[in-house]
Please model this.
Amino acid sequence: MVVQELTDTEVDGIFHALSDTTRRDIVTRVILGEQSISALARHYDMSFAAVQKHVAVLERASLVTKERNGREQIVRGGMTTLRKAARLLDAYDEIWRQRAEALEGILAEGTKQIEIEADR
Model:
């Protein structure tokens, strides 16, 4: 069983937020360095309000944080949440690796049995 550091609702929010290309790009940009929403908006062919909505989705999922600095809102990456999501994916990866190893063992046993029967 996968031990989760996140609730099902949090996991759903994270993967919903990351399901959009623009939001993944925003996360990448703010991980590389904090940016204001207006600076982020210059990278996209959409309105400032649309970028704000994307940032709001990311903020609800704790993938970014916003902080007001004068008239601007500065966006930073939420590394803690990203690390938790990465650990969850690593746990699923480990489950699949274990299943693949078990299948390899079953197939190897089957091959040995066929070889034994062929030698008779």
About this structure: The radius of gyration is 23 Å.
